[in-house]
Amino acid sequence: MSDSRNKKNLLELRSPAKLNLFLHIIGRRADGYHLLQSAFQLIDWCDILSLNLIADNEIRRVNPIHGVAPEHDLVVRAAQLLKDFCGISSGVEITLKKEIPMGAGLGGGSSDAATTLIGLNHLWQLNLDRTTLSALGLRLGADVPFFIFGKNNKVISIADVVFCFQCVFHKLIKSVHIYIHEKLRSKVAERKPDAFTFCRKTFYHIFKQPHD
Fold it and tell me: N or C: which end of the chain has fewer CB within 10 A?
């Protein structure tokens, strides 16, 4: 690792996980991507990403990550993508502390990629807007644009098409809590075994309704 540590060249960021509040496959596109309908909720469970600019013209991941070769790591690929896109001649050392379980559907890799793009956009003083970063992120994965915009979203198609529902989310959760509490109590009283399925379908039903 380089010993040159200027505070202006250092940045430590957190990459949040997400939950899929529901997920429906509604078709398939000609390119093979599934058409999805879902709602993503950011949660306070984060990987920790450190970026250190270096004079060498290299992208280096400092720490090993079990099962992920550096050339396949989304943070390395994201840094290289942005570097090539903007013609940057310097490099960066990346340290990634994984807290989000890999392969758990929580979006850790996509979040790390998005955080890398946002962090290097700042350190390299590129001033790219989030729409441009989102387009770059989509080359790395369908969920990356969601993390770049950093808001809870209703997702239609693959994740490059998102609609913000943050303004209604807390009201929605309150509605879900009241509705499920009452309905689930009746389900339990009837000794219905599909309580979990009922909760999931109920959330989807309420989510589709208009909210003020």
Answer: C
Cα separation, 108 vs 126, whole angstroms: 25
* Reported pTM: 0.70
* pLDDT tens per residue across span 73-130: 999 999 999 999 999 999 999 999 999 988 888 899 999 999 999 999 999 999 999 9
Question: Is 201 in the active site?
Answer: no
Which of these is catalytic: 8, 18, 97, 208? 18
The one catalytic residue in 47, 73, 112, 143 is: 143
How is residue 151 written in tokens?
A: 């808001």
Residues 200/22, Cβ–Cβ less than 8 Å: yes
Which H, E and C letters describe the chain, residue by residue? Answer: CCCCCCHHHEEEEEEEEEEEEEEEEEEECCCCCEEEEEEEEEEEEEEEEEEEEECCCCEEECCCECCECHHHCHHHHHHHHHHHHHCCCCEEEEEEECCCCCCCCCCHHHHHHHHHHHHHHHHCCCCCCHHHHHHHHHCCCCCHHHHHHCCCEEEECCCCCEEECHHHHHHHHHHHHHHHHHHHHHHHHCCCCCHHHHHHHHHHHHHCCCCC
Please name the amino acid found at residue 14: R
